[in-house]
Every structure is written in C-alpha cells, then in structure tokens.
Automatic annotation (TrEMBL):
Principal subcellular localization: cytoplasm
Name this polypeptide is given: Nucleoid-associated protein IL45_00600
Family: Belongs to the YbaB/EbfC family.
Pfam family, one: YbaB_DNA_bd
Task of the protein: Binds to DNA and alters its conformation. May be involved in regulation of gene expression, nucleoid organization and DNA protection.
GO MF annotations in UniProt: DNA binding
Coiled coil spans: 5-32
C-alpha cells in the first residue's frame, strides 16, 4: 500500500509539472478574432495576453464605434482563448490523475 501511495505522489508531481508546462505553452498559442466587416482584428494568446490590434482607418473617424468594436472583438477573442486554455490544462490534469477509488470526479 505504501508503494502505491508513493507511486501516486510521483504521478501527481509529474502531472503538476505537465500542467505548468502546458500553461507556459499557452503563451505561444495565438487566437485571432476580427469584426465581420474586417475593420478590426485582434490577436491574443491562449493565456489571455493581447498581442496585436489592427484598426482600419475608417474606424478612427468614429470614437464610439471604435470603442464598441474593441469591447466586442476583444471579449470574443478572450472568451475563445479562455476556452482553449481551460480545455488544454484540464486535459493534461485529467490524463495525469492517478486511479483512486471514489475519486472519479475528473472522468
């Protein structure tokens, strides 16, 4: 039994390391989002860091419209990024969980 416990602890430590590596990798996964009329394009990482924003000159003439576009498109991009991040980290964590009877909440 003690050997099983040590094996489980080792597997948990390995899983924790894989989760951390996955989180770092999310810094390199890019998510692009653009407005339907292609006047605004944003790129964020899966770890929700804004990398670039491209604004068409036509939007620069209407501050209110630009603000609305920024809010809408940034929120869409960040929602996508969050979904990717959560799915990737959860998959790694689930894959690395030891088989403990009664603890099947991750399956």
């Amino acid at each position: 039994m003690f050997g099983d416990m040590m094996g489980m602890m080792g597997k948990l430590k390995e899983t924790q390391q894989k989760v951390e590596e996955t989180k770092k990798r999310m810094d390199t996964v890019l998510v692009d989002e653009k407005s339907s009329d292609d006047l605004l394009n944003v790129t964020v990482t899966a770890s929700r860091i804004i990398k670039s924003i491209h604004i068409d000159d036509a939007l620069l003439e209407d501050k209110e419209q630009l603000e609305d576009y920024l809010i809408l498109i940034l929120n869409k991009a960040l929602d996508k990024a969050e979904g990717i991040y959560e799915n990737e980290v959860a998959a790694v964590a689930k894959d690395g969980m030891p088989n403990i009877p009664g603890m099947d909440m991750f399956k």
